[in-house]
Please model this.
Amino acid sequence: MSALVAAAEKEGQLNVITLPSNWANYGTIMSDFSKLYHIHITDANPEGSSGQEITAVEQLKGQSRAPDVVDVGPSFAVEGANDHLWAPYKVATWSNIPANAKDPNGDWYADYGGYVAIGYDPAKVKLAPTSFASLTNPAYKNMIGLNNSPTTAGAAFAAVYAAALANGGSFSNIEPGIKYFAHLKQIGNFVPTAIGGPTTVQNGTTPILIWWDYLLESEVKPVVPGFKIVIPSDATYASYYDQAISATAPDPAAARLWEEYLYSTTGQNLWLAGYTRPIELATLVANGTVNKAAEAALPPAPSSTLTFPSSAQAAAAETVVTQNWPTQVGG
Amino acid sequence: MAESTAQVVAPEAPPSGARPRPAARSLHRWLRWLGVVPFGVYVGLGLIAPFVAIAIASFRNSSTGTFTLNNFRTALSGTYLLGLKTSIVLSIAGAIVPGIWGLLLAYAIFTAKRGNMLRKVVITASGVFANFGGVPLAFLFIATLSTTGIVTGWIKDITGVNIWDHSFSLYTGYGVFFVYMYFQIPLMVLVILPALEGLRPAWREAAHNMGAGTWQYWRHVGGPVLLPSFLGCLLLLFGSAFSAYATAEALTGGTIALTPIQIGALLNGNVVAGQENLGYALGVIMVVIIAIIMVIYVILQRRSARWLR
Model:
């Protein structure tokens, strides 16, 4: 570890990409890391997407400004591994990451995530929603929104997956989720705007917003007094982002030190303070090293163990959503 | 005329300058080409090079890199074919309706007295509105005309009618069409006005002297002269609607299939991984459609330039 620190400090530079400073507490994480190791961090394209991260790794290969590390959605982590974009690495706490949330080879590993949740503004939503089934209530006419289109945004896609689980679907069958939203649209409850977020909750366009619990907590709750967040009782769908180190990282040691920092107790608790659930949360709780206040601020997690769609299941579901969302929900 | 057209994109060719003497002609020709060089470099780097790169990639398999026609096969089937159809239908409607509205509006301005305040205001405002688009435009409509929008509220307060209960919606194809009017009508005013101003009062006077009525003037003189310009402007509006992207995406959240939105989902999304080359194929198809439109536009432009100089 001390050799790694020395090598990383010698590089003195780390290129990250698409990390918004108000997302999952990344602002604090980056500045703390910088101060601790005297490594300057360049955050390229903070508002970018996973697709843009992959493109940057491929196209900036060999340049000193190429990304060292990425934080991508699961399908992009797998795609990058297939294209040999990642350098395998296993952090010191590797064994604390559940087996279904990491590549056995160490190409990628889940970092933080959360649950699909229903957020609502009690000032406008008198009857508290509790589940996907409850959202079909006529009282919610013109109220329910997603953050974006499920053909583009991971969170909205996850919401459709969760709705599928609540309506007899499975990881291999997302169709009931599309049908569910088509029904919500048909009865007039679903507002299909793609700019769902704090503003549309505030101005009443979508007083009910289905999104990641951590984004509802960190982005909507601070601006909407009394905002409530609930994980739907009929579907628990969690998704985690993945870390990976670029195989062509210009600062390989700093990249590895960054991963060690993220998976240290400090790093994990910093993510927790950003309302996300770090992947080693269970270990932190068991060891008593968890930041209790930060943990208590999250909506209570369902007790069931986490399961995730396989990459083949997810890819199939993506195709189904891409093909059927406009035809079934639109029109 | 210069005063009112200086700020707009005049669709017709500028009048050719005075001809130089033969001795100076060859040097003059060189200088002329020299002046085009920056533009040529700009077009080469900004338009031609990316297009070639995209065209090549569109014939490759996203993961193996081998030659394939599959991207185009997928692009012309299922939801992507639907996207192309919807894009084209929306763009045609989004060109013809504001085209007619814009023509009438431009004609009203044209007949108003020169130097008239209203005329100046309409032209300046058109310049502003025609360039307003994207997510801010979508949000403007959501803030004013969504279920909880300000204007929706006013209409309800005044008339007791909630327009959203009477099948009004911003989040459908019709809603997108409605929002497109916001920038398409002013755009039409800007591009058709120079053509209207090219109609010489002398033609009208001559027609009247020979006993023609208003209808006959428009049927045999004004209409035929204006028609190529009008059609050319419609094609511009088509292109403008065809490439519009962020507004429709923000309003409909992918519930209507539009090609530019689908390209965005394939290239920039967080959901679909590894299908970039399908996005490139869709891009190539859009370029081909626009190229066809541009060829028709140039042909029409030649016809109208004959009269309007």
Confidence is low (pLDDT under 50) at residues 1-17 of chain B. The radius of gyration of chain B is 23 Å. Residues 106 and 189 of chain B are 5 Å apart (CA to CA). The first helix of chain B runs from residue 2 to 5.
